[in-house]
Amino acid sequence: MSKKQIINLDEVKIKPRHESFVATGAAADKFDASTGSISRMIGAQKLGYNLTVVPPGKSAFPAHNHHVNEEMFLILEGTGELRVGDATTAVRKHDVIACPPGGPETAHQIINNSNADLKYLALSTLQSPEYVEYPDSGKFGVYGERVDTNDDRISFVGRVDQSTDYWDGEG
Question: Distance from first CA to last CA of the chain, Å, rounded?
Answer without folding.
Answer: 57
